[in-house]
Structures are given as C-alpha cells and as structure tokens.
Amino acid sequence: MKRILPLSLIAIACGAAQAGELEVLHWWTSGGEAKAAAALKASMQAKGHTWKDFAVAGGGGDAAMTVLKSRVVSGNAPAAAQIKGPSLQEWAQEGVLANLDGVAKAEKWDALLPKVVSDVMKYKGSYIAVPVNVHRVNWLWANPAAFSKAGAKVPATWDEFFVAAEALKKAGITPIAHGGQNWQDFTTFEAVALGVGGADFYKKALVQLDPASVSSPTMEKVLTTFKRVKGYTDKNSPGRDWNLATAMVIKGEAGMQIMGDWAKGEFLAAGKVPGKDFVCVAAPGTAKAYTFNVDSFAMFKLKNDANTKAQNDLAAAIMGPEFQEVFNLNKGSIPVRLGMKMDKFDDCAKLSSKDFVDDAKSGTLVPSIAHGMAVPSATEGAIKDVVSQFWNDDKMDAKAAMSKLAAAAKTK
Ligand code: GAL
Known about the structure:
The chain is an alpha/beta fold. It has 2 domains: 21-134 and 293-351, D-Maltodextrin-Binding Protein, domain 2 (3-Layer(aba) Sandwich), CATH 3.40.190.10; 139-292 and 370-408, D-Maltodextrin-Binding Protein, domain 2 (3-Layer(aba) Sandwich), CATH 3.40.190. It contains 19 helices and 15 strands. It has helices at residues 7-13, 31-46, 62-73, 86-93, 101-106, 109-112, 115-121, 144-150, 158-170, 182-207, 211-214, 217-230, 242-251, 262-269, 305-319, 321-331, 347-362, 377-392, 398-408, and strands spanning 21-26, 50-55, 80-82, 122-123, 126-127, 129-131, 133-136, 139-142, 174-176, 254-258, 279-282, 290-293, 296-299, 334-335, 365-367. The strands form 4 sheets. The protein has a 5-stranded mixed β-sheet. A 4-stranded mixed β-sheet has the order 14-7-12-15, sandwiched between helices. A 4-stranded mixed β-sheet has the order 9-10-8-11. The protein is globular and about 65 Å long. It binds beta-D-galactopyranose. Beta-D-galactopyranose binds next to loops.
C-alpha cells in the first residue's frame, strides 16, 4: 500500500527546508483578477512557502494603499505589496523596501525588461520592485449583439461614439457602463484627453502638467466631451464597482465600457469569447496611442531569513516565463518580460503587444494617470478629485473645472 506523505514532509523532501511565509497585499478580488492571483499563490506553495493572502477589495487599489500605509506605520509591513509607478519611489525614500538586485542580476532582469519599465522598478539604480504585466488602459469593450440590436457601429472616433450611444439609447440599452468612482471617472477622462487632444497634448497637460496646456482650448474641449459621455450612463452608476459595469456589457444590458484590459479577464472568466461575444477596440480616437499601466510588487525589509528567501523566490517566479504566461492569460494583460511567445494569447492581447512596441517607437506610448503611472500620488489625488467633481456636479462648467484643474496640478 502506498503511503501518502503529508504536504509538510513533501516540502522538506523537496529541499524546501527554507520554507517561509509570504504575506502578500493586493487588490485582485474580481473574477479574472482572483484567477490570476491564484496562479501566483500556487507557484509559491509549490516551492513550499506559505501564502498569507492580504487582499483588500477595491478596484484601482485606493483602499489597499490606505491599509498598507497604516500597516507599515505600525511596524507590521507585509512581505510584499502591489505598489506601482512613482509611488515606488515614494516608498523607497522611506527606507522600508528590500533591495532585489541579487535576484535581478541572477535572473537577468535588465536584459528581459523594456527600459521604460525597469527604470520605474529601480531606486538609485537598484531594483526595489518586480513588474508583473503590461495593461493597456485605452480600450473600449463592446457587446456586438447589443450593437446589432441597435443597428449601430462600434465607434472609432468620438463623433462616432455619440452616434452609436444615441442608437443604443433608442434601443433601450444603456450606452456606456460606468462605475462612478474617481479612478474610473479618470480612466474615462484620460481616454477622452488622448482621443481628443492626442498623445503630445496628453503628455504636456497630464504628465508634465504644463500650465498653458492644462488651461487651453483643447482642455476645454476634452472636458466638454468627457461630460457629454455622462449623459449616456445609467442612474445607478455612482459608486458602482468596475467589474459590475463590465458585467452589464457581458449581459448586453449595456453596449460599451471604457476600461483597461483587466476587463477582458472578466469576460474570459464568464466564458465569453473575444471577437464573438465581445470585442475590444482602442478607445475612440486612440488607435495610434497606448496608455500603459504596469502592475508590480515591492518587497518590504524583513528580519527572518526564511521569509526573505521566500520574497526572492516570489520575485524570481513573477518574472519567470511560466508565470508571465499563465498570469497574463487570466488577467487580460500581456507579459512584461520581453521575448515571450504570444501564441496562446487572443487577438486583443496580440494587438496590445504589437501596439506597445509600435507606440514606444513613435513616441505615443503614454503612462496612465488614473492608474498611478505618471505623477506623484498627491498630485494624482488632487487632479482626480477635480475631474470627479466636474463629472458629478451638473452646475460646474468646463471653464470652472479647468481653473480648478490648474490649481490641483500644482499640488506637490
Ligand atoms: C488597476 C490595476 C489592475 C486592475 C485594476 C482594477 O489599477 O493595475 O491590475 O486590477 O486596477 O482593480
């Protein structure tokens, strides 16, 4: 009779005497996100480590970041946390992040990452975070059945968008599924800014926060167009979570959603087929530009050797080709590791992968502000608040919003 070994003994037999505990903070709680996170957990458990899940619900991660701050301030940091963009530098300045150069050198991260990504993962030349993926944010998701019921065409420009939205409305379908939370408002706003103003305007006004561009006729047009979109959302949109908005498109209750490609993770988790049950096109007017959002994990300094070893295993696994494939297939994003085969990926991911390279070359690859890629967190918070105030307050006109935006852009 075969004896079944308890898991702990198997771990020891496999040489995992150094098994550690990994507490990992993230905000991946929706259907597609949770499936992707489960892949990471499984790869750590396979190495004998214990995974302590520290999931804080709330799309965009605002709630997770608040919880993280209070944990670190009380001297009880998790082993790893989902932290992105310029916030990585802010955390590194606090002196609380672990140096990942050992694993980065051994695994050749410098050669495996686009420079635009590796620069963000480093503080004073040393790796302090490991990137997971590349999400494209400027997507429009559409339900073809809803469009054919309305006799409408999936829009490529903002003019076409409003024509399609009218037709969907007449057919009794909510034209645009929206969740009124400030990161979702800003996800729509930055798509409009890119589509109406173009990549150069986007960079000047929203990344460099150049005062003349923030207060310009183009910005006024962006704000007016953005506000017009609101007229095609439903009355239950305030406060709605993004994945519930995606569910409206999945069910055909709504025709479209403007959202990053984590939305694709929801369609796929619901068994929907890209190109048939749903389509992905660049957000109106943005086919020749790419708004990127790179998820990454930073590790906090720990005293326990086994747990530090577990952190290094986590970092190595995240950049490994197996994980990059399985995680991104579920998450809706594309691998951040260069040279990966894309044959298992769908057409949305293949387009994203091609456009990422093309837009990097043509200077139209831009960071997402809504997703913490571009400006310091305090500035980001201030400009997001203005955009949401404008969206919610029907008495505020574009000129008033613009002068508030100009003031908010000076927040340091
Ligand atoms: C983004 C994050 C994505 C996705 C989304 C919704 O900020 O980068 O991975 O999870 O929020 O939660």
